Amino acid sequence: MATIYREADTDRSALEGQRIAVLGFGSQGHAHALNLRDSGFDVRVGLREGSASWSRAEEAGLRVLPTAEAVADSDVAMVLLPDTAHARVYAQDIAPNLKAGDMLMFAHGFSIHYGTVVPPEDVDVTMIAPKGPGHLVRRTYQEGIGTPALVAVQQDATGKALDRALAYGAGIGAARAGIIRTTFQEETETDLFGEQTVLCGGISALVEAGFETLVEAGYQPEIAYFECLHELKLIVDLIYEGGLSWMRYSVSDTAEWGDYRSGPRVIDAGVRERMRQILEEIRSGAFAKEWIAEAEAGFPHFLALRREARAAQIERVGRELRKMMPWLRSEEKVVPDA
What we know:
Layout: E1 4-5, E2 19-23, H1 27-38, E3 42-47, H2 54-59, E4 63-66, H3 67-72, E5 76-79, H4 86-94, E6 103-106, H5 110-113, E7 124-130, H6 134-142, E8 149-155, H7 161-171, H8 174-177, E9 179-181, H9 184-199, H10 201-216, H11 221-230, H12 232-250, H13 253-266, H14 269-284, H15 286-296, H16 300-310, H17 313-321
Parallel strand pairs: 2-3, 2-5, 3-4, 5-6, 6-7, 8-9
Antiparallel strand pairs: 1-9, 7-8
Helix pairs in contact: 1-6, 9-10, 9-14, 10-11
């Protein structure tokens, strides 16, 4: 069974008198900084000079400093930047300003696990990874509930790394829900696997394959869109609320029978074998090596794939159909060009 820490298992004094720098003010960054501030911690936000988020952070009442100054002015630095930016920012702004006894924190283990960031031996290296997007971390904190999170300790220089990390987790509200103990390796590999095979890659490919199969068979694209994409939210919400059994209980008997009868024919032994291959690429570091090389080259293939995906028929059909549903406020969700 997993080890789960609650508020009673955390000790705020582990961070007593310590200054915290939150590096980044995106989805997670804004939630961490605001929640920590509201919990009474001494917080500053570290951003690159000229960042578009600078004014937003100041308008939220937070102290904002250039990244290097924020690290130098803190005892704890939480890195909430894109994985591919960690190595550069660490070398330029973080490493020169770390002091013995500082704590370097992450919300995802990629750069530590794959060695793009190698901290000195005299600092704590820990993780607090909320299992939800930043807006949820902020909202549930304000509601007094909290979002579950993971905690990991990669390096315990002070002998107090776990206590300090748990105090941070309590500060963002995660201990109200529960903080699960893991490792940098386990969090990184399972997170990447889930994204690629199920949550993003798997679902996207399954939706597109279903849509294209119906259209190729002569059905209207609009009908195919509703059946293979739009209604997915109804099913996911049921699974989210009560697991697969609750979803199967809530749908029709016909749908449940189709689930049992046809699901394993689509997701068959061949799919599972390819999942194992993807997991091996993650565990061996092959995926990380490829992604880092893509970033260093300026993301040419990534941007080409993004442009191709956004031009797909299912996207064009969806943009028109969503105009029928003003409650989605789709006009506010126009993504920038690649």
